[in-house]
């Protein structure tokens, strides 16, 4: 809090929260209870329906910023109160937010609330392999090698492949984007946009290696561990372990007495949001990781 001088010269301290005008229709008690700690928050209406779910390393500050945002007036007008759930860190907040949005389907989380049927480009190890589009319903992306890119639609995957082929002067025919007769140049070669692998002017092996190199930055990382791993976070002496297996968030273990047990899911499927949250910090070594053995004695808050 910053000190200030009053009209009568007294030095006092002001709290920004005290100067803030709270909406009358949102329960003040629910706002006053918000902690300045990591976690998720849920705006609910009078019928307890979730309107919006968000996350922050400072729940209180983030919620107050919503109340100051005119663009969110429609959501705020329908809100009756705000609830929160603490996590021990930012990763836990991100994972919990992603899960709850899928489960609760809040009205104003339109971009994230639907579970998407993803597709990807697959390129086999043979030099004559042609990129093909495959879907998550048919392949477990977490354990399948040779997958590149995550796309919401087949059209998006094809557009990205066309862009790569054009930029790298690859052969559209050998990449499955057009039909060409054996021994005849593809259209791109005829306008000098292909190095000629279709007519033997570039070795098939060299073309394949150039294609793989161009796709590499989009490669989906196969789950690099033999089993579940725990991501450990701590805050104010409170420890949580977020359990991940095959890029699927199983739950968070609270290392406190009386917490609910974590349960092995009946089926673990690659989750695109969990993957995007974790893959970069995990590969960079930014996360505190440890193996986890799930058992009935393990306790969890989810």
Automatic annotation (TrEMBL):
<dbReference type="GO" id="GO:0016787">
    <property type="term" value="F:hydrolase activity"/>
</dbReference>
<keyword id="KW-0228">DNA excision</keyword>
<dbReference type="GO" id="GO:0004519">
    <property type="term" value="F:endonuclease activity"/>
</dbReference>
<keyword id="KW-0540">Nuclease</keyword>
<dbReference type="GO" id="GO:0009432">
    <property type="term" value="P:SOS response"/>
</dbReference>
<keyword id="KW-0227">DNA damage</keyword>
<keyword id="KW-0378">Hydrolase</keyword>
<feature type="domain" description="GIY-YIG">
    <location>
        <begin position="36"/>
        <end position="110"/>
    </location>
</feature>
<keyword id="KW-0267">Excision nuclease</keyword>
<dbReference type="GO" id="GO:0006289">
    <property type="term" value="P:nucleotide-excision repair"/>
</dbReference>
<dbReference type="GO" id="GO:0009380">
    <property type="term" value="C:excinuclease repair complex"/>
</dbReference>
<keyword id="KW-0255">Endonuclease</keyword>
<keyword id="KW-0742">SOS response</keyword>
<dbReference type="InterPro" id="IPR050066">
    <property type="entry name" value="UvrABC_protein_C"/>
</dbReference>
<keyword id="KW-0234">DNA repair</keyword>
<dbReference type="InterPro" id="IPR047296">
    <property type="entry name" value="GIY-YIG_UvrC_Cho"/>
</dbReference>
<dbReference type="InterPro" id="IPR000305">
    <property type="entry name" value="GIY-YIG_endonuc"/>
</dbReference>
<protein>
    <recommendedName>
        <fullName>Excinuclease cho</fullName>
    </recommendedName>
</protein>
<dbReference type="InterPro" id="IPR035901">
    <property type="entry name" value="GIY-YIG_endonuc_sf"/>
</dbReference>
